[in-house]
Amino acid sequence: MTQPISMDIPHKHGRQLVRARLDKGVDKIAAVVPGGTVKDHRWEGDTLYFTIEGMGQRVASKLDVFEDRVHATIDLPPFLALFAEKIRAKLAKEAPKLLQ
User: Fold this and answer.
1) What whole-number distance in Å separates Cα of residue 40 and Cα of residue 34?
2) Measured over all CA atoms, what is the biggest interatomic distance in the chain, rounded to whole angstroms?
3) In what order do the strands lie in the sheet with 69-75?
């Protein structure tokens, strides 16, 4: 098992607005995996669970929404773990745009 990608994405919009933006933009999140698409997503409280499929792989992911940040956890399968730093960099660049 590989180490998941984990990072905080700061925001200044409050929990409810960020939840609404994530709901509308969940499909854009899949772009962190080349050719990725979101296959399912669900909310449990303030946590969004979703699965990305791309490059023949399934990636379990979750976003915990707080008042001032979103904590992202992406569990990469071994094959995609080879690209972990590129995926982390893309997430760090693109995720804040989704919350704007």
Assistant:
1) 17
2) 36
3) 5-10, 69-75, 57-65, 47-54, 37-44
- What is the number of structural domains in the chain? 1
Identify whether 1 is part of a domain: no
The whole model's pTM is what? 0.89
Q: Residue 75: give its domain's CATH number.
A: 3.30.310
Instruction: List pLDDT tens digits, range 2-41.
Output: 679 999 999 999 999 999 999 888 888 888 888 899 999 9
pLDDT band of residue 1 (cuts 50, 70, 90) is low
**Rounded Cα gap, residues 45 and 17, in angstroms:** 14
- Half-sphere exposure of residue 33: CA atoms within 13 angstroms, side-chain side: 26
